[in-house]
Description:
alpha/beta; globular; DNA-binding
Amino acid sequence: MELVIFDLETTGFSPRYHEIIQIAAVRMHHGKIKTKECFETFVRPKNPLPDEISELTGITYGDVCNAPEPSAALMAFSRFVGDATLVAHNGRCFDLPFVRECCLRHQLPMREVPFIDSLALSRLLWSSQRCHTMDAVIRRLRLSHEGLRRHDARGDVRILAEAVRHMWKRLGAPPDHCPVPLDVGHLPR
DNA sequence: GCTAGGCAGGAACCCCTCCTCCCCT
Protein backbone atom coordinates (compact mmCIF):
# COMPACT_ATOMS: atom_id res chain seq x y z
CA MET A 1 0.00 0.00 0.00
CA GLU A 2 1.40 3.34 -1.05
CA LEU A 3 0.63 6.21 1.35
CA VAL A 4 1.34 9.93 1.04
CA ILE A 5 1.27 11.60 4.45
CA PHE A 6 0.66 15.32 4.07
CA ASP A 7 0.11 18.50 6.06
CA LEU A 8 -1.01 22.03 5.25
CA GLU A 9 -0.26 25.31 6.92
CA THR A 10 -2.93 27.95 6.35
CA THR A 11 -3.75 31.50 7.37
CA GLY A 12 -6.57 30.25 9.65
CA PHE A 13 -9.20 27.57 10.27
CA SER A 14 -11.81 28.38 7.64
CA PRO A 15 -11.40 27.06 4.07
CA ARG A 16 -13.85 29.75 2.97
CA TYR A 17 -12.01 32.73 4.41
CA HIS A 18 -8.41 31.52 4.74
CA GLU A 19 -5.66 30.38 2.39
CA ILE A 20 -3.08 27.60 2.09
CA ILE A 21 0.48 28.89 2.63
CA GLN A 22 2.49 25.66 2.78
CA ILE A 23 2.15 22.01 1.66
CA ALA A 24 4.47 19.20 2.72
CA ALA A 25 4.23 15.45 2.13
CA VAL A 26 6.27 12.29 2.48
CA ARG A 27 5.74 8.89 0.88
CA MET A 28 5.36 5.60 2.76
CA HIS A 29 5.63 2.33 0.86
CA HIS A 30 4.63 -1.01 2.47
CA GLY A 31 5.05 0.52 5.94
CA LYS A 32 8.46 2.11 5.25
CA ILE A 33 8.87 5.90 5.27
CA LYS A 34 10.73 7.09 2.17
CA THR A 35 12.34 10.22 3.60
CA LYS A 36 13.94 11.07 0.27
CA GLU A 37 10.58 10.97 -1.53
CA CYS A 38 9.13 14.14 -0.11
CA PHE A 39 7.23 17.17 -1.39
CA GLU A 40 7.57 20.68 0.03
CA THR A 41 6.32 24.00 -1.22
CA PHE A 42 5.25 27.35 0.11
CA VAL A 43 2.14 28.83 -1.49
CA ARG A 44 1.62 32.51 -2.30
CA PRO A 45 -1.51 33.84 -0.56
CA LYS A 46 -3.61 36.70 -1.97
CA ASN A 47 -3.88 38.42 1.42
CA PRO A 48 -1.13 39.41 3.90
CA LEU A 49 -0.01 36.82 6.46
CA PRO A 50 -1.61 37.44 9.87
CA ASP A 51 1.06 38.10 12.54
CA GLU A 52 -0.20 35.29 14.78
CA ILE A 53 0.19 32.80 11.89
CA SER A 54 3.78 33.92 11.28
CA GLU A 55 4.48 33.52 15.00
CA LEU A 56 2.86 30.07 15.12
CA THR A 57 4.35 28.61 11.93
CA GLY A 58 7.54 30.62 11.53
CA ILE A 59 6.43 31.32 7.93
CA THR A 60 7.18 34.90 6.84
CA TYR A 61 6.27 37.16 3.93
CA GLY A 62 9.73 36.40 2.53
CA ASP A 63 8.88 32.68 2.35
CA VAL A 64 5.66 33.10 0.42
CA CYS A 65 6.09 36.26 -1.70
CA ASN A 66 7.78 34.45 -4.59
CA ALA A 67 6.18 31.05 -3.96
CA PRO A 68 3.98 29.28 -6.55
CA GLU A 69 0.34 30.34 -6.78
CA PRO A 70 -2.21 27.94 -5.19
CA SER A 71 -3.27 26.25 -8.44
CA ALA A 72 0.34 25.51 -9.50
CA ALA A 73 1.25 24.27 -6.01
CA LEU A 74 -1.80 21.96 -5.82
CA MET A 75 -1.22 20.58 -9.32
CA ALA A 76 2.39 19.76 -8.40
CA PHE A 77 1.21 18.14 -5.16
CA SER A 78 -1.37 16.07 -7.04
CA ARG A 79 1.33 14.83 -9.46
CA PHE A 80 3.50 13.85 -6.45
CA VAL A 81 0.58 11.91 -4.90
CA GLY A 82 -0.17 9.95 -8.07
CA ASP A 83 -2.23 6.87 -7.23
CA ALA A 84 -1.26 6.76 -3.56
CA THR A 85 -3.65 6.97 -0.59
CA LEU A 86 -3.56 10.30 1.25
CA VAL A 87 -3.13 10.53 5.04
CA ALA A 88 -3.54 13.63 7.23
CA HIS A 89 -4.37 14.33 10.88
CA ASN A 90 -7.95 15.61 11.04
CA GLY A 91 -7.64 15.84 7.24
CA ARG A 92 -11.28 14.96 6.73
CA CYS A 93 -12.38 18.15 8.47
CA PHE A 94 -9.40 20.41 7.83
CA ASP A 95 -6.82 19.69 5.11
CA LEU A 96 -9.13 18.12 2.52
CA PRO A 97 -11.80 20.85 2.70
CA PHE A 98 -9.00 23.43 2.16
CA VAL A 99 -7.76 21.54 -0.92
CA ARG A 100 -11.29 21.16 -2.27
CA GLU A 101 -12.17 24.82 -1.69
CA CYS A 102 -8.93 25.89 -3.37
CA CYS A 103 -9.73 23.72 -6.43
CA LEU A 104 -13.22 25.22 -6.65
CA ARG A 105 -11.89 28.78 -6.23
CA HIS A 106 -9.38 28.28 -9.04
CA GLN A 107 -11.75 26.22 -11.19
CA LEU A 108 -9.45 23.19 -11.21
CA PRO A 109 -11.06 19.91 -12.34
CA MET A 110 -10.86 17.35 -9.54
CA ARG A 111 -10.26 13.63 -9.13
CA GLU A 112 -11.15 11.35 -6.24
CA VAL A 113 -8.32 10.02 -4.06
CA PRO A 114 -8.53 7.40 -1.27
CA PHE A 115 -7.89 8.94 2.13
CA ILE A 116 -7.11 7.87 5.72
CA ASP A 117 -7.58 10.23 8.66
CA SER A 118 -4.87 9.53 11.26
CA LEU A 119 -7.32 10.88 13.86
CA ALA A 120 -9.33 7.68 13.26
CA LEU A 121 -6.21 5.56 13.89
CA SER A 122 -5.66 7.39 17.18
CA ARG A 123 -9.32 7.03 18.23
CA LEU A 124 -9.23 3.32 17.43
CA LEU A 125 -5.95 2.75 19.28
CA TRP A 126 -6.76 4.83 22.39
CA SER A 127 -10.55 4.53 22.40
CA SER A 128 -10.86 5.41 26.10
CA GLN A 129 -9.02 8.73 25.65
CA ARG A 130 -10.80 11.92 24.69
CA CYS A 131 -7.79 13.89 23.49
CA HIS A 132 -6.37 12.93 20.09
CA THR A 133 -4.38 16.01 19.12
CA MET A 134 -1.09 15.63 17.29
CA ASP A 135 0.69 16.56 20.51
CA ALA A 136 -1.21 13.88 22.45
CA VAL A 137 -0.35 11.25 19.81
CA ILE A 138 3.33 12.27 19.87
CA ARG A 139 3.34 12.11 23.68
CA ARG A 140 1.66 8.68 23.85
CA LEU A 141 4.04 7.21 21.28
CA ARG A 142 7.02 8.94 22.97
CA LEU A 143 8.18 10.28 19.61
CA SER A 144 11.00 12.77 19.52
CA HIS A 145 10.59 15.88 17.40
CA GLU A 146 14.05 17.17 18.09
CA GLY A 147 15.28 19.22 15.14
CA LEU A 148 11.77 19.36 13.66
CA ARG A 149 9.68 22.49 14.00
CA ARG A 150 6.05 21.93 15.03
CA HIS A 151 3.58 23.93 12.91
CA ASP A 152 5.98 23.93 10.00
CA ALA A 153 4.44 21.46 7.52
CA ARG A 154 7.90 20.01 6.77
CA GLY A 155 8.41 19.11 10.43
CA ASP A 156 4.83 18.09 11.16
CA VAL A 157 4.62 15.74 8.21
CA ARG A 158 7.73 13.83 9.31
CA ILE A 159 6.42 13.47 12.86
CA LEU A 160 3.01 12.43 11.54
CA ALA A 161 4.57 9.81 9.25
CA GLU A 162 6.36 8.27 12.24
CA ALA A 163 3.16 8.42 14.27
CA VAL A 164 1.15 6.71 11.52
CA ARG A 165 3.77 3.97 11.18
CA HIS A 166 3.68 3.31 14.96
CA MET A 167 -0.11 3.42 15.30
CA TRP A 168 -0.56 1.10 12.29
CA LYS A 169 1.88 -1.37 13.86
CA ARG A 170 0.30 -1.18 17.31
CA LEU A 171 -3.13 -1.86 15.79
CA GLY A 172 -1.68 -5.10 14.46
CA ALA A 173 -2.56 -4.38 10.84
CA PRO A 174 -0.29 -5.64 8.05
CA PRO A 175 1.36 -2.83 6.03
CA ASP A 176 -1.03 -3.38 3.11
CA HIS A 177 -4.23 -3.56 5.13
CA CYS A 178 -5.67 -0.32 6.46
CA PRO A 179 -7.04 -0.77 10.02
CA VAL A 180 -9.77 1.87 9.53
CA PRO A 181 -12.28 2.32 6.67
CA LEU A 182 -10.92 4.31 3.71
CA ASP A 183 -12.42 7.73 3.04
CA VAL A 184 -12.39 9.81 -0.15
CA GLY A 185 -10.69 13.15 -0.81
CA HIS A 186 -10.21 15.34 -3.85
CA LEU A 187 -7.12 16.61 -5.67
CA PRO A 188 -6.79 18.54 -8.92
CA ARG A 189 -6.73 16.26 -11.95
C1' DG B 1 -12.93 40.51 13.82
C1' DC B 2 -15.18 37.09 11.79
C1' DT B 3 -15.17 32.54 9.73
C1' DA B 4 -16.46 25.02 9.14
C1' DG B 5 -18.34 20.85 10.12
C1' DG B 6 -18.46 15.95 11.08
C1' DC B 7 -17.37 12.94 15.02
C1' DA B 8 -17.44 10.77 19.73
C1' DG B 9 -19.28 10.38 24.07
C1' DG B 10 -22.61 11.45 27.56
C1' DA B 11 -27.28 12.56 29.22
C1' DA B 12 -31.69 10.98 29.20
C1' DC B 13 -34.15 7.32 28.26
C1' DC B 14 -35.13 2.33 26.64
C1' DC B 15 -33.83 3.71 21.21
C1' DC B 16 -33.25 7.56 19.48
C1' DT B 17 -32.16 12.59 19.75
C1' DC B 18 -29.86 16.34 21.49
C1' DC B 19 -25.88 18.64 23.37
C1' DT B 20 -21.11 19.65 24.00
C1' DC B 21 -16.59 19.07 22.90
C1' DC B 22 -12.97 17.97 19.79
C1' DC B 23 -9.57 18.85 15.91
C1' DC B 24 -7.05 21.31 12.38
C1' DT B 25 -4.09 26.94 11.52
